[in-house]
Design brief:
Layout lengths: L2 H8 L8 H10 L1 H9 L6 H9 L5 H14 L3 H14 L5 H18 L2
């Protein structure tokens, strides 16, 4: 199974409905799930500075990535990578709806971070 399929199972959105089937799949792939979660690092000044200096990352993406990093307590570079991947692979809206959603997300991240 792909990592995406495993996360779909974890979210309860797969065709698997029987608890025994779900448990069997998760037990079979527990090591990959653990490694996937262990991949993410905590935020760091070095990572934040790299994002701020990166000319290939747009200003709005930098801002959103840095806010998401603070909100989730994850590495800044990894947050920008996650956002880029989401936009390339999964986002299905328009540019205008993206502006509204990212603005809303920025406001949530700003109010939730000390």
């Amino acid at each position: 199974r792909s990592s995406r399929e495993l996360w779909t199972i974890l979210l309860g959105r797969s065709a698997l409905r029987e608890p025994a089937q779900i448990a069997a799949e998760l037990n079979k792939h527990w090591q990959r799930l653990l490694e996937g979660l262990s991949y993410y690092k905590p935020p760091s000044t070095t990572s934040a500075e790299k994002i701020k200096a990166d000319k290939d990352v747009s200003a709005p993406l930098k801002e959103l990535g840095l806010r998401v990093s603070k909100f989730l307590g994850l590495d800044e570079e990894q947050c920008v990578q996650l956002l880029e991947c989401y936009l390339q692979e999964d986002y299905r809206g328009t540019r205008d709806s993206l502006k509204v959603r990212s603005s809303h997300l920025c406001s949530i991240c700003s109010t939730s971070v000390p």
